[in-house]
Amino acid sequence: MTTNAVKRQAHRAVAVGAVGAATIGAFLLPAAPASAQPVTIPGVGTVEIPNEIQIPQGIPGLQLPAPAPLPFFAPVRTAGEAALDAAMSKVGAPYVYGAAGPDAFDCSGLVQWSYRQAGMELPRTSGAQLASGAPVSLNDLQLGDVISFYGGGHSGLYAGDGNIVHASTSGTPVQVAPISSMPVAGARRY
After folding, report:
1. Which listed residue (166, 167, 168, 188) is catalytic?
2. In total, how many domains does the chain have?
3. Does residue 62 form part of some domain?
4. In this model, does residue 180 exceed pLDDT 50?
5. For 113-132, what is each residue's pLDDT tens digit?
6. Catalytic residue among 154, 156, 157, 182
7. Which one is catalytic: 84, 104, 107, 164?
């Protein structure tokens, strides 16, 4: 073969390859975006080459990975919240001095029983309840915090919105009442 024949065959191969690639590209690629760069191929002409290739949707056999699911975080309930729920279930139960549930309560018996339902063991008397746990400011109360009154002689559970649930006195069932209805001695978190 002569040198010219080799050159002509090479030109033809490049042209056929470029046309073939351009033909395949026309089927697989969307129309060139406005930011395409013109490229001149000898014997073929000028073609637009996109700066980025977008993957079209719906190509048979194309498997894209599924997006990872978002992590699930279950809300965390505190022992105080669980204890408060237990105490609220006893609103209306009778007050009986020295009773610690499940059908009748005195103040510290209600607090102890409620926390036991939440899986925690608290001291039996209101004075001992005020002496244990972590001290907490009245400005930082959370649901279920133990609030003591009358120097530690009475206790109840913080029910939110400035209220407590407590077993107050003989003849009065377990009830929700304002914290401000009694002199506060302190609050504890368990």
Report:
1. 166
2. 2
3. no
4. yes
5. 999 999 999 999 999 999 99
6. 154
7. 107
| CA–CA distance, 190 with 173 (Å, rounded to integer) | 25
pLDDT given for residue 48 in this prediction: 79
Is residue 99 a contact partner of residue 169, using CB atoms and an 8 Å limit? no
pTM for this model (two decimals)? 0.63
Q: Count Cα neighbours of 122 within 13 Å in the Cβ-side half-sphere.
A: 36
On whether both 30 and 96 belong to a single domain, the answer is no
**CA distance linking residue 105 with residue 88, whole number of Å:** 13
Angle in degrees, 0-180, between the axes of helices 107-117 and 79-88, rounded to the nearest 10? 120
> Is 90 exceeded by the pLDDT of residue 88?
yes
Distance of alpha carbon 115 from alpha carbon 190, whole angstroms: 9
For 160, the token pair is: 């939110």
Question: Can you read off the two tokens belonging to residue 87?
Answer: 């105490």
Can you tell me which residue has the tokens 């959370």?
142
Cβ 147 vs Cβ 187: under 8 Å: yes
Q: What is the CATH number of the domain that holds 169?
A: 3.90.1720.10
- Domain extent, residue 18, equals 3-49
Establish if 98 belongs to a structural domain: yes
Catalytic-residue membership of 107: yes
Best CA proximity match to 158, nearest among 139, 180, 179, 174:
179
Alpha-carbon span 142 to 188, nearest angstrom: 10
